Amino acid sequence: MATKTLLFLFLSLFSLLQQNVSTAQNVNAGYWFPDSGLAASDIDSTLFTHLFCAFADLDSQTYQVTVSSSNTSPFSLFTQTVQLKNPSVQTLLSIGGGNSDTTVFASMASDSTSRKAFIDSSIKLARDYGFLGLDLDWEYPQSALDMANLGLLLNEWRAAVATEAGNSGKPPLLLTAAVSYAPTVNGLNYPIQSISNGLDWINLMAYDFYDPTRSDVTRSHAALYDPTGQVSGSYGIGAWIQAGISANKLVFGFPFYGYAWLLVNANNHGLYAPANGPVGSGNGAITFQQIEAFITNNKATTVYNGTIVSDYCYAGTTWIGYDDTQTISTKVLYAKQRGLLGYFAWHVAADNNWVLSQQAQQAWGSNASRDQGK
């Protein structure tokens, strides 16, 4: 009997170690959503280790995680579809998003019963649809109480995932979250200990720092460095590490899109040039694919700025800030040198013939040194 008990304990420990090894692999990820203009079957999943399917919704009455009827088929078939080209790619169901109602998330997280409804329904939905993990995209908690409740949610989510895995005999679902580029947002601190204990990693959204509706001069919305301040990817990474999150739980996010500013003077076209809002409607957002077409069609001048690590182009009174291949390579190598778990892109459909995705994968796979102290 003792021998059998020891063997059981050994096998259990070995299983846990194997699970830890599997979750510690590098992350080369991208987000996809059904209305992006790219079918899931057209994703080149060989370029990714993980793919996020966005977004599941949070019901404002029941606090259960749901998928709209129009998304049922693409979501339920997502994993098997992308695994046709890459059987090892891991998929996660992302919940929320920038257009979701933050007050509903706050209400859900404020009570143990509604948190349980969220947690149980998310796990069931992930299992029913064949996802290997869940991703929380709450943008953003609005009070110190929200942040404290987020901590409770993550603690309970992790416990429920472990229990479900133990009962089902399946590997535990991955748990991740998309968070601000820095550990403080709206003057509020994220719950560091709960994030460290409850999540496999966090996706740092190191973009959307500026756009033409919030700045009257041209800017990079996703600069790696900010020589004059603290609005940059490198600052955010350093701040998260200083706050207590291990570098190997950080995944660095960069955009496959840019913003188009309307220049006040076509002859003044550098960084911080006076601008008069966005080009076109909305906030001026433009995909990398559209940017490449603009450059070709307008014979636009392109510039790489190595000081902040960003690209921009201009033609006439249009100025576009974005990430091109050199910027992507530099960011990926920076993440690797800092010892980060990996990178992700928002969003894969915005790429142009997979140029940026290929560049990122190649840079991560290069022989650059992992200088932890850089």
Automatic annotation (TrEMBL):
Keyword rRNA-binding belongs to the record:
no
Origin superkingdom:
Eukaryota
Checking PANTHER family in the record gives: CHITINASE, GLYCOSYL HYDROLASE FAMILY PROTEIN WITH CHITINASE INSERTION DOMAIN-CONTAINING PROTEIN
Sorted keywords for this record are:
Glycoprotein, Glycosidase, Hydrolase, Signal
Name of protein: GH18 domain-containing protein
List the InterPro entries: Chitinase_II/V-like_cat (IPR011583), Chitinase_insertion_sf (IPR029070), GH (IPR017853), Glyco_hydro18_cat (IPR001223), Glycosyl_Hydrlase_18 (IPR050314)
Q: What is the lineage of its organism?
A: Eukaryota, Viridiplantae, Streptophyta, Embryophyta, Tracheophyta
* SUPFAM superfamilies recorded: (Trans)glycosidases, Chitinase insertion domain
Q: Which residues form the signal peptide?
A: 1-24
> One Pfam family name from the record?
Glyco_hydro_18
Q: Which family does it belong to?
A: Belongs to the glycosyl hydrolase 18 family. Chitinase class V subfamily.
The chain positions of domain GH18 read 26-367
- MF terms in GO: hydrolase activity, acting on glycosyl bonds
